[in-house]
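Look over this record before class:
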Amino acid sequence: MVDIVAKNQSPSTSSNPISAGIGYIKESWAEIKKVHFPTKAETVQSTFGVLFLIFLFVLFLGLTDHIVGKVMQEIMT
């Protein structure tokens, strides 16, 4: 089984819930500092990329639905 606790960190073994809670908050804050938040430019670029892919997917589904509908209509008549 994989050990989840990193080698340089020790699990909270304190019996005092206050110090354990403070330790948890300190560790959480240290992890938050490591997070890379995207810049505004990266966010805008990613948003437009997603919107473009959605547009392509909608276009593909619409065309496929139209073609299949026409084929089914010809088969039924």
